[in-house]
Design goal:
The chain is mostly helical. It contains twelve helices and four strands; from the N terminus they run αααααααααββαααββ.
């Protein structure tokens, strides 16, 4: 596997990278969002999981290398939900997010789409539907979500997105007579504002049960102590902020970069096909390089101080009689 150091001893006890450091989380996210894991079959994923289970029991096949074990672990982390242990549908894994959004973002940033209320509604409906699926598939699974709750959350997420998008389209039309520089600024900032706000709303609604019912708190001995709405709120806030961050390279950078490329005579006078290929390339580059650092802004397994959660979790003691001062929980992605 690219990036694996052959002589690094494999372990299941700690992550491949130092996740307490931002740089380590960035490396982890680049690995976890690698598009190659989109094409891992169910059988291959199960095989990787079995290899890790065998290793944990001291029964790994003779000759198995550390590199093979690291690759098996990378597959498990990219394909399986960390709490349910179930395989995530390929298109809803985060390794599919960037390839899928090359199509979505290219369409969304098209001036014809931005200027048309109908096309704007269509592309934002498609985008938020996909985001809802991603958010649900990569949620904290402490609490079950009923179909009725999920349907209401999906409806709210799509409606909020479309309302914000139509507002952005209205403002774009109002700015039609402004200078080219101002129109470029509007083209880069309004779609970003609309998508970022809608993305925050989407994750908050689709995963709202984590705020109302809480998420599992785990003590320093790995024991689940109960569910905390305060931890759930923190997790959703961080997930929402990550979505704002990753929309900067997706929605802001491409229009700015393209406006500079269009100053080149060959690009400016070239065919529409050339400009389209350039824009797709720019968007793809921004997606593949910009999304993992945004996902890494906050740890997936987050820590929260006991003083910041509900009173029933404060002054608890572990099996050694020591007061528990902090808990961990799965924030999700």
């Amino acid at each position: 596997m690219a990036g694996v150091i052959e002589d690094q001893p494999f372990t299941l006890e700690k992550p491949r990278y130092d996740l307490s450091a931002y740089s380590g989380r960035v490396k982890q996210m680049y690995q976890q969002t690698n598009p190659k894991y989109l094409f891992v079959s169910r059988a291959k994923a199960d095989e990787a999981k079995k290899l890790l289970d065998d290793y944990a029991e001291g029964a790994a096949p003779a000759g198995t290398t550390d590199a093979e074990l690291w690759e098996a672990r990378a597959i498990r982390e990219a394909v399986f939900h960390p709490e349910t242990g179930e395989q995530i549908f390929p298109l809803f894994r985060f390794c599919a997010f960037s390839p899928s959004n090359v199509v979505i973002a290219t369409t969304m940033l098209n001036p014809t789409v931005i200027a048309s209320p109908i096309l704007t509604l269509g592309v934002h409906w498609a985008n938020q539907s996909y985001n809802a699926a991603i958010n649900y598939a990569n949620r904290n699974a402490s609490n079950p979500i009923s179909n009725e709750t999920l349907a209401k959350a999906y409806t709210g997420a799509v409606l909020s997105s479309c309302t914000i998008a139509l507002g952005a389209t209205y403002l774009t039309k109002k700015a039609a007579n402004l200078s080219a520089a101002v129109k470029t600024l509007i083209r880069s900032t309004l779609p970003f504002a609309a998508v970022a706000a809608a993305g925050f709303a989407n994750v908050s609604l689709i995963r709202g049960v984590e705020i109302t019912d809480g998420v599992d708190l785990i003590d320093d001995e790995g024991v689940i102590r109960g569910r905390s709405p305060a931890a759930g709120k923190l997790g959703i806030t961080e997930c929402g902020l990550a979505r704002v961050l990753w929309n900067i390279p997706i929605m802001v950078f491409p229009p700015v970069i393209m406006s500079q490329l269009e100053k080149i005579r060959r690009v400016r006078t070239g065919s529409p096909g050339l400009k389209m290929c350039l824009e797709i390339g720019v968007i793809a580059g921004c997606l593949f390089t910009g999304v993992p650092p945004a996902l890494a802004a906050f740890p997936q397994v987050e820590t929260i101080e006991a003083a910041k959660v509900e009173p029933e979790f404060q002054n608890l003691r572990n099996s050694k009689g020591n007061i528990i001062t902090q808990f961990t929980f799965n924030k999700g992605l």
